[in-house]
Specification:
This protein is α/β, with parallel strands linked by helices and 750 residues long. It has 19 helices and 31 strands. It has a 7-stranded parallel β-sheet with strand order 10-11-9-12-15-8-16, sandwiched between helices. A 6-stranded parallel β-sheet has the order 17-27-26-18-25-24, with helices on both faces. Strands 2-1-4-3-5 form a 5-stranded antiparallel β-sheet. Strand 13 (349-350) and strand 14 form a beta hairpin. The longest helix is centred in the first third of the chain and has 15 residues, at 220-234. The protein is globular, with a radius of gyration of 30 Å. Bound molecules: adenosine-5'-diphosphate and zinc ion. Adenosine-5'-diphosphate is lined by residues 216-219, 222, 245, 247-253, 402, 569, 571.
Length: 750
Amino acid sequence: MAKPTLDVPDGESETARDDRARLPVLLTLPFPGPLDYLAPPPPETPPPGQLVRVPLGRREEIGCVWDRDSTVPADFAPPPESPVASARLRAVRGALDLPPLPVTLRRFIDWLAAYTLTPPGLVLAMALRAAGTEPRKPALGWVRGSADTASLRMTPARLRVLAALGNAPHGTADLAAASGASPAVIRAMADAGLLEAAPIPAETPFATLDPDFHRVTLSEEQDHAAETLRAAVRARAYSATLLEGVTGSGKTEVYLEAVAEALRLGRQVLVLLPEIALSAQWTERFARRFGAQAAIWHSALGSKRRKITWRAVLDGQARVVVGARSALFLPFPDLGLCIVDEEHDTAFKQEDGVTYHGRDMAVLRARIAGAPVVLVSATPSLETLANVEAGRYGHLTLAARHGAATLPDVALIDMRAHPPERGLFLSPLLAEAMEERFARGEQVMLFLNRRGYAPLTLCRACGFRMECPNCTAWLVEHRARKELACHHCGHTEPIPPCCPHCGADSSLVPIGPGIERIFEECRARFPEARLLVMASDTLGSPQATADAVRRISHREVDLIIGTQIVAKGWHFPHLTLVGVVDADLGLGGGDLRAAERTVQLLHQVAGRAGRADAPGTVLLQSYVGEHPVMQALVSGDYRAFMAQEAAQRRPGFWPPYGRLAALIVSANTAEAADALAHAIGAHAPHLPGVEILGPAPAPLALLRGRHRRRLLLRAPRAIALQPILRHWLAGLRLGAQERVEIDIDPVSFL
Ligand code: ADP
Ligand code: ZN
């Protein structure tokens, strides 16, 4: 990794002030740690956490006054920089008009940076992305001035303005609208002393939440779980608990009781969801329980809203935040509870930029804040189950589905015995079952985790496959958009009229189905049914998703065809049949967690069926019915399956029984990538218990035009990988076109 060099210019006036204190300031730049500046003399010395303006070279930067931390283990953290001589320190220019960042956030930044081998300044940058660090100018409005009306000419317009004044100051535009007078009239009145400027109090957009607004009567089992979590909140100490229960067992209802308890204690709560598309339905339900909305946090939020929310979290005004993993970096001064819903979901892993696992970092955040964390799932990850088994996490289970709802029946359709007709993808058995539901006025969902029309386009004449020019990947046909697209880099091209390789005319054929193709098949086969396609590219916004969900709930739709977006915790009460078009899809790819992930995903899809009083059925189309994954799904015995998974991973120290880190080496040519990967491999450490796998070409050997090689570092749990990696890569100098990315606890192996 290239080390950034510091440009500290000589001979500025702000030198030679040894008598004043050094102030470490963390900048939002990839330095190994904070830089020292000269502190303003007391009482102006800014406290740790204060955001300040400091000079850097010719620029001015925003930084955060830092405190050297003793809780981060020394061998995790980078070696201290050789200190700049005090005589050459430059002075802090000023402080921003914001409360200091809480100490728990600062320690979280230190820890996350050390754990992921990221320069801490880049982690700070994530925390400040929405801070609104420019000075806030309070908006000014008008109140009654001291001038006497008797001594002035009072036109009707002026009188209307005075009549429109309220107790709180009104802005010029508001006042003009309310009175019908022009802004010029208002300004003239101010000049005459009839009006006086006053700051408008900041908007307070987060209404008070009432912990007892609408309570439901919990079942005995639910109540026991809720009371355990309430006690954990009252303990005001770190604890981690897995809340496990099938879909519909009332997990959400139970953890909202813990939220209520935190509200009673006046503390803040963070709820992480894997998918922002879920937030609309979640917040609606939240509002029914607490009488007002939670603050929402995700990347699709407008920048103004982000700033208001960030500030309200720091002020303690926003009590409950529901959001995507980036909400972990919000400046909660008083976090009293953290919840990770659908904790097993791999969407919690951030793969771009700073790579971190949102679930694991939520546990860290809670630990630092001294607050309980609750991990919620119907199909917990093996990581979390191992933590339960080791006694590190508590465990609460909800066995029964609430009310009359029963678990769906899961059955296999053996595609070898009941194949679809040529060119089609639904077995006659599945089609018949769908027909039956439609006849009864019930809803059906077909699940296929593949966007587009066909995953592969092939020339019938020469066998040529349409590939992405920038990636090791096939181009996916999107028939509705009349193009071929790469799902890795976004490359698109029109569907060519003849084969680009042999020139044969009309010889290109789509191979395999995507959901557009299933849609086509269903439209032809069930012409009466009202169809809806749900995929990330057809449901762009949380609003569009909410609208689709509403249409399903109101029975305006008979058949839903969707990708994994439909698997997430929706409640569809009239849905009684789920068909999984290709249950084998997730099993390939040689991914460590492929089987686990397939079971989790399909289990969750199955959970959509039979939510209310109508029992549901799930039909899995598979060519490998004897596979342990299919057997686990049919028997519904998730635990037995996970025990098998554990038995397979334990001996080789695969996660969660060992530690894993990936190095992704990339360059602009294949030769350069190979050379760099081999150079790194040649310097690999030889340590007992530590194993280096690779270098090997990544499955996506070419991605966005970059050639990629992978190495894996594997060790037993007792060995921390960070110091090993630091030492290994410390001497590395990279060329301009070379890159090494480190992925601690990798989830994707592409
Ligand atoms: P999960 O989170 O486990 O999927 P939910 O908490 O969403 O389960 O509960 C499923 C449905 O049952 C929801 O509509 C919820 O409001 C309802 N429900 C669960 N427990 C109760 C209860 N004790 N009283 C009333 N409704 C309940
Ligand atoms: Zn591509």
